[in-house]
Specification:
By secondary structure, the protein is mainly α. Helices cover about 80% and strands about 0% of the residues. The longest helix is centred in the middle third of the chain and has 60 residues, at about 155-215.
Length: about 325
């Protein structure tokens, strides 16, 4: 790994938030005196702190790369026209640097300035590939142009073919995204149905537990085991693995005031289920619609950001 003083923005975003998350977790673990619930909540928050900045950065970078790929065919076609008029590729890049290619314009400007500084064209194109290495389309297109120039073939025909292929690739991607959009919406609808089912279960189970508590005097004949099955596994003071799991569920109860006993257990469990289901559904939506884990993480955050406040607001309002 490179020394810290040589890190770029991506490396800072990748390594600094996890370090901050670990430090927070260690501080809370030492200060909580073994409170499993508080440690569990801290673990969850530390994971969010660790991964969200990097995925936001990757998402913004992916959008930038996608915008460059959209303009690549236009740049290559303009480059072909300049070369066909009798200019060299180096001079053609200089002419193209005066035109607007959106996000790609700054890269064309960099190539032009590097050429004016005397950097060989092949090295200029290689540095361009390194800067946008996330794009398979740009890397493949530039490699073909480099090889065509090195071999001394028909560079104009080669660049025309590369421009045409790039256009076809981007058109196919747009069509695939359009075709998969309804599948993504279906996953959102399934997630909302899942939330509805969980809310109904919370309402039924917490009402049942309340009735059982009010009938405490009539439940003596059922025995302790039956009572435990009705009220939930975290009733009383369980020990061992069960106690640790119940301590993990007690964290949200303390933070969001879910109550005690069975109310705490079921509400915390369903809250975790909503968050986990939201992230998993989002990852599936991103992979199906965009073949990108970054897009999946975006959809996961959207679903979690919808499901979490709905659950908390309904509980705080007394509707469940």
């Amino acid at each position: 790994m490179k020394p810290i003083k040589e890190w770029d923005t991506a490396e800072y975003v990748k390594f600094v938030p996890p370090i901050v998350g670990i430090v927070i977790l260690l501080i809370v673990s030492l200060a909580s005196m073994g409170d499993v619930g508080l440690i569990g909540i801290t673990v969850f928050l530390s994971l969010i702190i660790s991964v969200i900045p990097y995925f936001i950065f990757r998402y913004m970078r992916q959008r930038e790369i996608s915008a460059m790929e959209e303009q690549l065919p236009n740049f290559l076609r303009d480059l072909v026209e300049e070369v066909r008029s009798g200019m060299t590729i180096s001079k053609s890049i200089r002419m193209c640097s005066r035109r607007d290619y959106g996000k790609l314009s700054k890269e064309v400007d960099k190539m032009y300035h590097q050429i004016t500084w005397g950097v060989p064209l092949e090295k200029v194109l290689r540095m361009f590939i390194e800067r946008v290495g996330e794009s398979h389309l740009i890397r493949r297109s530039m490699d073909i142009i480099i090889e065509a120039q090195r071999s001394g073939g028909d560079i104009i025909s080669t660049m025309e073919s590369v421009a045409m292929d790039s256009s076809f690739v981007k058109a196919a991607e747009r069509e695939r995204k359009s075709n998969m959009a309804h599948h993504t919406m279906s996953l959102y609808m399934i997630y909302f149905m899942f939330i509805g089912v969980l809310l109904a279960l919370v309402n039924v189970l917490t009402s049942m537990m309340g009735q059982m508590s009010s009938m405490g005097g009539t439940m003596e004949g059922m025995g302790a085991i039956s009572m435990m099955q009705i009220t939930g596994p975290c009733t009383g003071s369980p020990e061992g693995i069960t106690g640790s799991i119940c301590g993990f569920f007690s964290g949200p109860c303390t933070v969001f005031d879910f109550g005690e006993g069975s109310d705490c257990y079921y509400k915390s469990m369903f809250l975790y289920m909503i968050l986990i289901q939201g992230m998993c559904s989002g990852l599936v939506a991103g992979q199906a619609g965009y073949e990108s884990i970054t897009e999946g993480f975006k959809h996961g955050l959207i679903m979690m950001s919808i499901g979490f406040p709905i659950f908390i607001i309904l509980i705080k309002s007394g509707l469940i």
